[in-house]
Amino acid sequence: MAWDGPSDPADEPAADCPTSAAPDAMPAPVLRKRIALGLPGLGNAVEVQTSFVLSEPAAALRLEPLAAAVPAEFSAAWRFDRATGGIAPLDPGPGERPDPVILATPEGSHALAVWAPGPPDQEPDAPRPGFAVAPEAGANRLSCRFRVANAAAGAHDLACYALLGSLADVRAALRSLTAPP
What letter would DSSP give residue 106? Predict the structure, then answer.
């Protein structure tokens, strides 16, 4: 979890991110996580339910309930279009994107995506998921993030999913999860 300023678009925590227990720093949040393998009809899904419990309000937070690092061979990045169920090549540069991202081997035999449901349309101020790719030494990191402005004290419950398999398997899982009811 990282604290960000409300307009800070950087992928890294802001320079004033509390990193130690300073007397005036916000007490460390409590993280609760439940992981389940498989979903009905989707054996290639990993469900991650998280609850970030804040002891006091915060002006702005970036919550990252799910991140995965894959070998650098997962070098093909794809953007999943929820409206069409299609995928398109993506430049995996830094920054968050509103659409789910898939990392795959060039031939598509192995792939990973992270996805999270967005809030209902009638909740326009609720945090929406963002998806980010970051290259690391010998690996690529894929994450699901939520930015929360004016975060209240108490629990902030979020769900994210990791989808594994071939590129076709992962695309099919994303289509299943994002299909209208």
Answer: T
